[in-house]
């Protein structure tokens, strides 16, 4: 969806799936994210250190995965939407250079605080389909009837 476009409440139905999005997090991205968030843990940017800790390679930061999922929701809802609530939980290891797919579905449509609202389940999985980061979101969407 183009950033200038909006997704409307009337165009969404329960059970609707969000278009999947595959991302690959690079070690450069992870290094910069560690610097910005002041996360000095070397398992996120030093491959030799990660190996010494028994890991196959450096691990993608949990908050970076959460940020990618919240951006996925924001892109889906479009410019007219409002992200009311977002929660996520890291359940598995995401590795640098690994294909990660973001997926989601609409679980509920209703009115909240007098506004059209949608609850979403979104998640990140690896190339073998293992669930790494489940998340939920509540978004307000514009309605065609109030525009």
Can you write the helix and strand succession as a string? EHHHEEEE
How large a portion of the residues is in β-strands, by DSSP E?
25-35%
Distance between the termini: 20 Å
> Quick one: overall form?
elongated
- In the sheet with the most strands, the strands line up as 1-3-4-5-2
What's the average pLDDT? 93
Look at the structure and give the CATH class of the domain at 13-26 and 62-146. Alpha Beta
* Backbone structural class: alpha+beta
* Fold-level CATH name of the domain at 13-26 and 62-146: Thiol Ester Dehydrase, Chain A
- The stretches of 5 or more residues where confidence is low (pLDDT under 50) are none
CATH superfamily of the domain at 13-26 and 62-146: Hotdog Thioesterase
Helicity range of the residues? 10-25%
Number of helices: 3
CATH-defined architecture of the domain at 13-26 and 62-146: Roll
Rg result: 17 Å
Count of strand segments:
5
Please outline the major beta sheet.
5 strands, antiparallel
Topology record:
Blueprint: E1 17-24, H1 27-37, H2 47-52, H3 62-77, E2 82-88, E3 99-112, E4 115-126, E5 131-140
Antiparallel strand pairs: 1-3, 2-5, 3-4, 4-5
Organism: Thauera terpenica 58Eu
GO molecular function, one term: (3R)-hydroxyacyl-[acyl-carrier-protein] dehydratase activity
Protein name: MaoC-like domain-containing protein
């Amino acid at each position: 969806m183009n950033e200038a476009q909006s997704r409307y409440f009337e165009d969404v139905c329960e059970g609707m799936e969000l278009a999947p999005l595959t991302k690959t997090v690079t070690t450069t991205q992870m290094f910069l994210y560690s610097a910005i968030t002041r996360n000095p843990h070397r398992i996120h940017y030093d491959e030799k250190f990660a190996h010494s800790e028994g890991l196959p390679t450096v691990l993608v930061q949990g908050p970076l995965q959460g940020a990618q999922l919240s951006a996925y929701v924001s892109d889906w809802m479009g410019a007219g939407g409002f992200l009311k609530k977002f929660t996520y939980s890291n359940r598995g290891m995401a590795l640098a250079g690994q294909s990660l797919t973001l997926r989601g579905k609409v679980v509920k449509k209703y009115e909240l605080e007098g506004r059209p609202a949608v609850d979403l389940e979104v998640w990140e999985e690896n190339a073998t389909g293992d669930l790494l980061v489940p998340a939920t979101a509540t978004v307000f969407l514009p309605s065609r009837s109030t525009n």
